[in-house]
Every structure is written in structure tokens, then in C-alpha cells.
Design goal:
The chain is 35% helix and 18% strand. By secondary structure, it is of the alpha/beta class. The protein has one domain: Neutral Protease, domain 2, CATH 1.10.390. The protein has a five-stranded mixed β-sheet with strand order 3-4-5-7-6, covered by helices on one side. The protein has a two-stranded antiparallel sheet with strand order 1-2. A hairpin with a 5-residue loop joins strand 3 and strand 4. Helix 2 runs parallel beside helix 3, helix 3 packs across helix 4 and helix 4 runs antiparallel to helix 5. It binds zinc ion. The site of zinc ion has 7 residues, from helix 3 and helix 4.
């Protein structure tokens, strides 16, 4: 955001973007939030939003965020393409997460405490939506026929990021499990490459 200017008793908010993006990637999240501010190794501000009364969930929910960010920049070998990055939990969200440019929205059912972290956490969605900032947002498919460009790379890079945190066993298990699920769907005559999309948009 560049500034807020009063015009006719209202406030005009001005935003600056250095690169173009597709219109489906714009979003607003409006509510009462506080934020944790981190900074990547490369100097990009990372803002993690949370409900004011749930400060104890900040660390477990956003655990490994900076590590994932630094990992993806290094692994993809292309600097994060936008000026900043934000993650905002929202209520009654249809998907796990959505990779709006510079601002991922995600279901607040992923807001967890440190006990719940082992059972269910935001790490995979965190990495998946962040990978979309390159694959999908910086480079966007021209039509739905090429959605592999979005979901294929986002899914794969999220697995790589998880491998760097949780190790080889989990990586190969998820790899195998995904392949087996896709194979079963295919054999049932329901095969399509949107399986991952159905789980995480
Ligand atoms: Zn996705």
C-alpha cells in the first residue's frame, strides 16, 4: 500500500505493483486481526495475521514459515516475484488455502496450538500456496487445460519443502500415497489431473 488519501469524505487506498497479474488473484480480507512480521533472508516482509485473542496459536500455526520461504527461493532459483507476502486466516473458507498474489488466504481451521501440531498443521498448505506465487501467479496458465502448471509445481515444491523439514520418509510416503490415489481414481474411470486441486486450491 502506498497511501490513504481523503477524497469527498472517504478514504482512497492506493496500492503499487511492479508486475502484472491475472485478475482472479486479487482478494480482500477484512476483519479484526493482529500480525506477526518476519523477514526472509532476501529481505521480503512476511506478515502472518491472526485473531487478536489467539496469540498462542501464532507460533505453531506459522511454524517454519521463514524456513519454507527461504527454501523455495533457493530451490526455485528465482527471487520471490512480489514486494511482500501475507497469510490471513478466514472463517468458513471453501478451500484449504488460496494463493492470491502476495496474500494467501487460508481456512482458520488450520489455526492450531502446539499440541495439535503433530496431528494437523498448516505446513503443507503454507508451502503449497507460497509456491503458487511463482507457479500460477508470476506465470499463469492461458486456459484450464494447463492447470498442471499451477497445481503440479505447487504440489511438488510443497513436498520438497516438507522433505527439507520432516525428512525423506514422509516425503516418499506422501509421494507414494498421492501416486496411489491418482492411480485408483484413474482405474475407477474418474482419472483427472485435478485431484490435488480438489484437496488444496
Ligand atoms: Zn494449489
Amino acid at each position: 500500500m502506498v497511501d490513504k488519501t481523503p477524497i469527498d469524505g472517504k478514504l482512497a487506498w492506493s496500492f503499487d505493483m511492479e508486475r502484472p497479474m491475472s485478475s482472479y488473484l486479487i482478494a480482500f480480507a477484512i476483519g479484526k486481526y493482529k500480525k506477526q512480521v518476519l523477514r526472509s533472508e532476501s529481505g521480503i516482509p512476511i506478515e502472518n495475521y491472526y485473531y487478536p485473542q489467539e496469540e498462542l496459536k501464532v507460533e505453531p500455526t506459522y511454524r517454519y514459515t521463514k524456513r519454507i520461504f527461504d527454501f523455495l527461493e533457493k530451490e526455485i532459483e528465482f527471487d520471490y516475484p512480489w514486494q511482500n507476502y501475507k497469510q490471513v486466516p478466514v472463517h468458513d473458507f471453501l478451500y484449504a488455502g488460496m494463493e492470491n498474489t502476495g496474500a494467501t488466504l487460508f481456512s482458520d481451521s488450520y489455526l492450531i496450538d502446539s499440541v495439535a501440531f503433530k496431528d494437523r498443521n498448516y505446513v503443507n498448505v503454507n508451502a503449497h500456496e507460497l509456491a503458487h506465487q511463482w507457479f500460477g501467479n508470476l506465470v499463469t496458465e492461458e486456459s484450464g487445460n494447463h492447470h498442471w502448471l499451477q497445481e503440479g509445481f505447487a504440489t511438488y515444491y510443497a513436498y520438497l519443502a516438507e522433505r527439507s523439514i520432516f525428512g525423506e520418509d514422509k516425503f516418499y510416503w506422501k509421494y507414494y500415497d498421492t501416486a496411489a490415489t491418482l492411480k485408483n481414481q484413474s482405474e475407477d474411470g474418474n482419472g483427472n489431473h485435478y485431484l490435488i486441486l480438489m484437496q488444496i486450491v
